[in-house]
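A.,

Following up on our hallway conversation. C-alpha cells first:
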C-alpha cells in the first residue's frame, strides 16, 4: 500500500479556490476520513494513489474513477457537448497509466435533469473519440434522470459526467516509484491548458471577476475564453505505454488537482526540485491576474502547462522526450529527484521560491 502524503499542520489562510466554492484542504481531510472508514488494504495497491490494483486471475486489475467536474458547466455555457466526453476518458485513462497499467475499457455515468437525446448523443460522440484515442472500449454505462439534484442552467439543462475505467498490469510491473534515486529526472509532457481541474476557480476569475464573456475573443489566447476552457484534456496513453514498454519509467504522475504535488504520491518519500519548468500557457496568467490568485495557489490548483510527469533515470531522459514528441507532445526535463530532502514528500519550485507539501505550496 502506498503511504499517504504528509500533511502540513500549519493553518492555511483562506484561498481563492475555497472562496470560489472548492476547499481542497477540507476535501483532503474528508478523503482521509473515508479511507479510514473503509478499513485496511483490499488489494495489491490501494490508498491515495492514481488507481487501485487488485489481483485477478494471476494478474493485476487496475481500477479508477473520475469525472469532468465543473467543466460540464463550461460545456453548458458554450452549448457544446461533443468534446466533454474526451475529458472524461482522459481523466480516467491518464490515471491508469500512472500505475503502469494498459487501459482496457470504461463505463460512463451521465446524470441529467432531462434526458435530451441530442445532448446525450453529442456527449457519446466525445466519449467515442476519447476511447479511440486511448485504445479502449466503452463497455456500457448508465443515464440517470435526477431533476431534483441536477439543476438546469439558463435553459441549457444540467448534467454531470463520470467514468470508471479498468486496465491490466503484470503484478511485477506495477509502477509506484519505489526505486527512485537521487538525481533521477522529471520529464514534463505539455498540457492543453487547464484540462479538467480548477474550472471552478478559472470560471470565477475569468467570467465573474474578469468580466469576460463566454464567447469573447481574447487576444492573449487567440480564441474565445469558452473555447480555451473547453479544450479537451490531452490523452497520454499511447506515449506512456511506449515508455513503459521500454522500461524507461520509474514513476508517473497525472498533474491534476493539487498540481505538481501529485508527484509526492509515490512510494518512496523523496522530494523534487523543479528548476526548469516551461512557460505556462497564457490562460494561467489571465486567471492569476483577473482573479487575484497567488502564485502559491496557482501551482496548488492548476497543472501550469504540464499534464503528465514521467520520472526516469537521467540517462533515459532523451529517450522519454523523443517518445513524447513522436506522439505529438512537447516535453522537456523540468527537474530532478532529491532522495534526502529536508521536507519529505515535498516539491520545490525555485523560480518562484515555493515549497509544497500535502495539498498546498508556500513561500520558502
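Then the amino acids I'd put at each of the 364 positions:
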Amino acid at each position: 500500500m502506498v503511504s499517504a502524503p504528509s500533511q502540513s499542520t500549519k493553518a492555511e489562510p483562506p484561498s481563492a479556490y475555497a472562496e470560489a466554492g472548492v476547499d481542497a484542504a477540507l476535501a483532503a481531510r474528508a478523503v482521509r476520513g473515508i479511507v479510514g472508514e473503509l478499513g485496511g488494504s483490499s488489494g495489491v495497491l490501494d490508498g491515495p494513489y492514481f488507481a487501485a490494483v487488485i489481483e485477478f486471475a494471476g494478474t493485476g486489475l487496475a481500477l479508477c474513477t473520475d469525472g469532468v467536474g465543473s467543466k460540464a458547466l463550461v460545456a453548458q455555457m458554450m452549448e457544446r457537448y461533443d468534446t466533454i466526453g474526451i475529458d472524461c476518458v482522459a481523466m480516467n485513462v491518464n490515471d491508469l497509466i500512472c500505475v503502469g497499467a494498459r487501459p482496457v475499457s470504461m463505463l460512463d455515468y451521465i446524470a441529467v435533469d432531462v434526458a435530451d437525446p441530442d445532448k446525450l448523443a453529442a456527449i457519446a460522440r466525445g466519449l467515442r473519440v476519447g476511447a479511440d484515442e486511448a485504445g479502449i472500449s466503452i463497455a456500457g454505462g448508465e443515464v440517470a434522470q435526477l431533476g431534483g439534484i441536477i439543476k438546469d442552467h439558463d435553459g441549457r439543462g444540467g448534467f454531470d459526467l463520470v467514468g470508471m475505467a479498468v486496465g491490466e498490469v503484470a503484478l511485477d510491473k506495477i509502477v509506484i516509484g519505489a526505486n527512485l534515486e537521487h538525481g533521477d529526472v522529471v520529464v514534463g509532457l505539455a498540457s492543453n491548458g487547464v484540462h479538467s481541474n480548477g474550472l471552478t476557480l478559472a470560471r470565477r476569475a475569468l467570467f465573474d471577476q474578469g468580466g469576460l464573456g463566454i464567447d469573447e475573443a481574447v487576444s492573449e489566447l487567440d480564441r474565445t475564453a469558452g473555447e480555451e476552457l473547453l479544450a479537451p484534456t490531452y490523452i497520454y496513453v499511447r506515449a506512456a505505454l511506449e515508455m513503459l514498454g521500454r522500461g524507461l519509467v520509474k514513476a508517473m504522475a497525472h498533474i491534476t488537482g493539487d498540481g505538481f504535488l501529485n508527484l509526492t504520491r509515490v512510494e518512496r518519500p523523496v522530494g523534487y526540485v523543479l528548476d526548469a519548468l516551461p512557460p505556462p500557457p497564457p490562460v494561467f496568467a489571465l486567471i492569476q491576474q483577473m482573479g487575484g490568485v497567488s502564485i502559491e495557489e496557482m501551482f496548488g490548483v492548476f497543472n501550469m502547462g504540464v499534464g503528465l510527469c514521467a520520472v526516469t533515470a537521467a540517462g533515459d531522459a532523451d529517450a522519454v522526450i523523443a517518445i513524447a514528441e513522436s506522439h505529438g507532445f512537447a516535453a522537456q526535463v523540468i527537474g530532478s529527484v532529491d532522495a534526502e530532502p529536508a521536507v519529505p514528500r515535498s516539491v520545490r519550485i525555485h523560480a518562484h521560491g515555493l515549497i509544497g507539501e500535502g495539498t498546498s505550496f508556500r513561500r520558502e
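The CA atoms of residues 82 and 122 lie 4 Å apart. Curious whether your intuition agrees with the design.

B.
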